[in-house]
Amino acid sequence: MKKSLLALAVLGAFAGAASAQSSVTLFGVLDMSLANVQNKDNAGHSVSTQQMRTDGINSSRLGFRGVEDLGGGLKASFWLEAGMSNDIGTVGGSNGNSNPAGGTGAATIFNRRSTASLLGGFGEVRLGRDYNPSFWNTTIFDPFGTNGVGSALNVVSTLGSGATTLVHTNNSVGYFLPSNIGGVYGQAMIAAGEGVSGNKYQGGRIGWAGGPIDVAVAYGQTLGSNFSDKYKLFDVGGAWSFGGMFKVTGQYVQAKYLDRKQTTWQLGGIVTLGQGEVHIAYTDANMNGSSTTVGFREVDDAKQFAVGYVYNLSKRTALYTAYSRVTNDGSAAFAVGGPGSALGGSSTGFEAGLRHSF
């Protein structure tokens, strides 16, 4: 929704930033659900909880973005985006950055994205905290968009590397190809570690979208917690749409750190039925490697099945429901969330919610 400079001035702290922009947009998503999560370990201990959750089908957020036309085809832009926990009324969260002395990461407002850019016929150069190339394949080719109880990230591991770059990257410099090169798209990113373990990143993504087909390959590597060994992530994914009613998605992911490796593949789809959509995905994660690192287990395999339904009341508002079950093998302990342990057992989640965007 476009806002005038006068309306934006009501936002107080943002008024000064808005006055220098050619156009500024205020946007957001509120996604809330009621859920039941049950975690059961291999000893038969089970914990079931009822929760109010956020981010069931879309990530809740509050954002501001603006563009200034500099002339000659050159533009400058900013993008500030904060995650929201609507159930308790908080904005922002951890930036995923921990200091060398330890800690869980600094709290920040614009934890989802905080960037400044220059755009032109050459593409886009973007600076700041942003989503990295190796994450985009994971989320775009996941029928659940890595949200809610069915997220593919439920069974993804950083293999004890201490990498904080599974989704976002701090202190990054990114480049995006222009959009007019025959369906080819891509990006590259580097990020300085700045003395912070698990944050120094390099990666890229290249893909092609034309007609019903969209395919892409991505790679990223991050220096681990010892500032030398690299956590490497390779992802190839694709989607094929059939007449706008049915889309098949798939991806293959391989993560490596030291002598540990996790291989994950997913097959899913989205079926459009009038105003409704059925989402379905099966994910298989297989782990191999050493058990010498604290917290890492030799046998750590898991499978996840998820199915969901979204009913679009309008372009901005939807009702949804989803179910997911994670089955762990050996000493794996992946879960869809909630308290209790799923060590060598299972984790199930059911949620029903409302999403509204503006």
Question: What layout of secondary structure does this protein have?
Answer:
Blueprint: H1 5-9, H2 15-18, E1 23-40, E2 46-54, E3 61-71, E4 74-85, E5 90-91, E6 93-94, E7 107-108, E8 113-120, E9 123-131, H3 133-140, E10 168-176, E11 184-191, E12 201-210, E13 213-223, E14 230-242, E15 246-257, E16 260-273, E17 276-288, E18 302-312, E19 317-328, E20 346-357
Which key features would you list for this structure?
mainly beta; Porin; disordered N terminus
- By CATH, the topology is Porin
**Mean pLDDT metric:** 89
Individual helix count: 3
Helical amount: under 10%
CATH superfamily: Porin
Q: Which structural category do the helix and sheet elements fall into?
A: mainly beta
* Rg on CA atoms, Å: 21 Å
| Strand residue percentage | over 45%
Secondary structure: number of strands: 20
Unreliable parts: 1-20, 98-104, 291-298
Using the alpha-carbon principal axes, give the shape.
Answer: globular
List the quaternary state of the chains: single chain
- Total of domains: 1
Largest sheet: 16 strands, antiparallel, barrel
Strand order of the largest sheet: 1-3-4-8-9-10-11-12-13-14-15-16-17-18-19-20
What would CATH call the architecture? Beta Barrel
SSE string, helices as H and strands as E: HHEEEEEEEEEHEEEEEEEEEEE
**CA-CA gap between termini:** 7 Å
CATH class: Mainly Beta
Structural commentary:
The chain is mainly beta. The protein has one domain: Porin. It has three helices and 20 strands. The protein has helices spanning 5-9, 15-18, 133-140, and strands at 23-40, 46-54, 61-71, 74-85, 90-91, 93-94, 107-108, 113-120, 123-131, 168-176, 184-191, 201-210, 213-223, 230-242, 246-257, 260-273, 276-288, 302-312, 317-328, 346-357. The strands form two sheets. A 16-stranded antiparallel β-barrel has the order 1-3-4-8-9-10-11-12-13-14-15-16-17-18-19-20. A two-stranded antiparallel ribbon has the order 6-7. Residues 1-20, 98-104 and 291-298 have low confidence and may be disordered.
